[in-house]
TrEMBL record:
Residues 1-145 form the N-acetyltransferase domain. Pfam families: Acetyltransf_1. PROSITE patterns: GNAT. This is N-acetyltransferase domain-containing protein. One of its GO terms (molecular function) is acyltransferase activity, transferring groups other than amino-acyl groups. It comes from marine sediment metagenome. InterPro entries: Acyl_CoA_acyltransferase, GNAT_dom.
Length: 145
């Protein structure tokens, strides 16, 4: 076990989280995090092909935000995807905060749809375009090692 994995294990135990990983009917995965038996968040992915997945929905309940659970969910998803042979993960980010959480989980992106993080709004949870519709976000891609 490498030192980074050992640190993640300690952090998970220290925070008391347990995880449930399931293959989703659409071919991706659904991963749920629980604290003392209560679901605190989840992440879903969609399989694009044998080696590529899209991170579709990463959600932490409002009462549990700001504790690093989103990053831990993304890290656990990355670990599970690697075990299933996925080599590339794509995601759409809607804020600098969500981007930073994903970078903490997946590392430096291999490709982005922006030249500078400054192009992404700083802390908005859901971005809204001029017509009041949710924004699409900025595409980001990671190669899993």
């Amino acid at each position: 076990m490498d030192s980074r994995r050992a640190i993640r294990t300690v952090l998970n135990e220290a925070r008391g989280l347990t995880f449930q990983v399931m293959k989703a009917p659409w071919g991706g995965l659904t991963l749920r995090a629980y604290l003392a038996g209560e679901e605190v968040g989840h992440v879903t992915t969609e399989t694009l092909d044998d080696t590529k997945s899209h991170l579709g929905n990463l959600f932490v309940k409002p009462a549990h935000r700001g504790r690093g659970y989103g990053t831990l969910l993304a890290q656990k998803a990355a670990q599970s995807l690697k075990e299933w042979g996925v080599k590339t993960v794509e995601a759409d980010v809607t804020s600098q905060k969500s981007y930073r959480a994903l970078v903490s989980a997946f590392g430096t992106p291999s490709a982005t749809a922006f030249e500078s993080i400054d192009e992404i709004p700083a802390t908005s949870y859901h971005e809204v375009d001029g017509e009041g519709k949710p924004g699409d976000g900025w595409a980001v891609s990671w190669n899993l090692q």
